[in-house]
Every structure is written in C-alpha cells, then in structure tokens.
From TrEMBL:
Name of this chain's protein: Lytic murein transglycosylase
PANTHER family noted in UniProt: LYTIC MUREIN TRANSGLYCOSYLASE, MEMBRANE-BOUND LYTIC MUREIN TRANSGLYCOSYLASE B
Keyword 4Fe-4S: no
InterPro entries, A to Z: Lysozyme-like_dom_sf, MltB-like, SLT_2
Length: 280
C-alpha cells in the first residue's frame, strides 16, 4: 500500500507541474524538531505534509521517503565545535587545520585563479566579487572540487532540519533539496557535505534554489559544474550586499556579507585573510 505521505506528494505533483521557490515553507505546517534519532521517521512524515504544501512533486516525495538519518550530520550537530569551531582561532590556525600550510593553500588558489582567469574576470565584472574571494571559498569548501562529500544530500539536509538546535532554520533547505530532486538537479542518491551541501562550493539547497546561475552558458545551472557554482556564489554574495571595488577586510561591509555564506567568525576571517594573500 502506498503510504499516505507519498500520496500527498503525488497530488502535489499533479497540481503543480512547475516548481517555484515560493512557499518553500508553510509555517502552519511546520514539523516538530526531534531530540533522538528514533524520532526521525515521525519527523519525515510531518515534513512530508509541509513539502506537499510547498509543491514538492512525486520524485521529491519519494526521495524523502527513502531518506535515512545521517549519522555524521547528527554527530556534527551534537558537537558543533568539531566543524568550524566555536572558540576563536586565528586565520592561520583555521586554514592549517585543513591544509598543510597557508602557503600551500595560497599557492594552489593562485594556480586555480590563473587557470580560470577569464572566468574570474567576467564574474568580478558582472557581480563585483573578486576572484580571490571566490577561489578561497572554493578551495576551503572542496579543495577546488577535489572532494565534494560522501553524505547523501537529502538525508543530510533532512537530518539537519530535524535537529532541535538547528530547527526550524534549515527546514527550507530540506524542502529545497526535495525540489532539486524534482528538477533533476540532484537525485535521491546524490552525495555531498554532511549537512546536505552540494557541489563545488557546498551550497545549502535553499541557496542553490534562490541564487543558481548558468555560468557556462549550456542552459542549465549545475552545482557540480565549477563555472556554474562560482557564478552562483558570486550572485549570492552580491545579492546579500557585496559591493564591488570595496574592501573586504574585517569590519567592512563586504566582510559582513561573508556571514551569509558561513556564520562562523573563524571561517569569515580565514577567507578574507587568504584572499588578501592571494591579492598580493
């Protein structure tokens, strides 16, 4: 027998063939957060009602049905300092926790910048975001596309949304991940970061829905295509207030825009620091 919550998705699919970003979340149907892993299936059933109201179709609802709780996501949320850290770290300490040295990171970033010089120039011309910032984020997030994650995106996004410390802030991203399955941008089996991040720049699904740009002109915005991901990152920063030609040092308006990407002060300082070295 088809579960009731899958039927809801089929009804929504028939009623709404074209998915849009509006009504990503319906507050009246907000799912309750959970405090134990054993409550995950109940959370999914509650989220399914919200997803159906937001227009998620058959494929997205089936992906939600298949999603399993992500153990790594749950562990990270139980110990947030294991990610970007809650205590102050210098930019040098932050970068060398993931890379062999600051010099190695900067050298690799400069090489990618030079290899894709025309792309970065066009992005700065269009969005005002310098290549040094974009290539620093790209490098920190995935080592310039070298590793984009091995956690099921839908499972990670739904697990993050379910966790009470994060709820309901990330429910929009969980529903957006289901919308991306509907659109064929990702599949139910696609893998990414531990919180449902996707592609070269590790976008949360909601940010991809809101800001996606076709950077290589093939008619499709794909988070696993570097040009598309970089263009989308530049678009996201600009639409959050980035001003071209202005400084990005700590305390500046552009520095504050980095919080739209990652709310960790350690992360923001490290990206600005790396970019300043790349620009030298």
């Amino acid at each position: 027998m088809t579960p009731k919550w899958v039927k809801l998705g089929m009804i929504a699919f028939l009623a709404s063939a074209t998915l849009t970003t509006q009504a990503i979340t319906t507050k009246a149907l907000a799912a309750r957060c959970i405090t134990s892993q054993g409550q995950f299936d109940a959370y999914k059933q509650s989220l399914a009602q919200q997803a159906a109201s937001a227009g998620v179709g058959q494929r997205g609802m089936q992906a939600l049905q298949q999603a399993r709780l992500s153990g790594i996501t749950w562990r990270f949320e139980s110990n947030p300092s294991s990610q970007t850290g809650t205590r102050y770290r210098s930019p040098e300490q932050f970068l060398t926790a993931r890379f062999s040295s600051v010099n190695s990171f900067v050298s690799n970033a400069k090489r990618r910048l030079n290899q894709n010089a025309s792309l970065f120039r066009s992005l700065e011309s269009r969005y005002g975001v310098p290549g040094s910032i974009l290539v620093s984020i790209w490098g920190y997030e995935t080592s310039w596309g070298g590793y984009t994650g091995d956690t099921p995106i839908v499972g990670g996004a739904v697990t993050l949304a379910s966790y009470c410390r994060r709820h309901p802030r990330f429910e929009d991203d969980a529903i957006a991940a289901l919308q991306l399955v509907d659109r064929g941008i990702i599949s139910a089996n696609s893998r990414g970061g531990p919180s449902g991040e996707l592609g070269h720049m590790q976008f949360l699904a909601g940010n991809w829905v809101r800001f996606a740009v076709d950077g290589n002109g093939d008619g499709r915005a794909d988070p696993n295509n570097a040009a598309d991901a970089l263009a989308t990152a530049a678009n996201m920063l600009r639409r959050n207030g980035w001003r071209g030609g202005q400084p990005y040092t700590q305390g500046s308006g552009n520095f504050r825009v980095l919080s739209a990407w990652n709310d960790s002060g350690n992360y923001q300082r490290a990206i600005a620091y790396a970019a300043s070295l790349i620009d030298q």
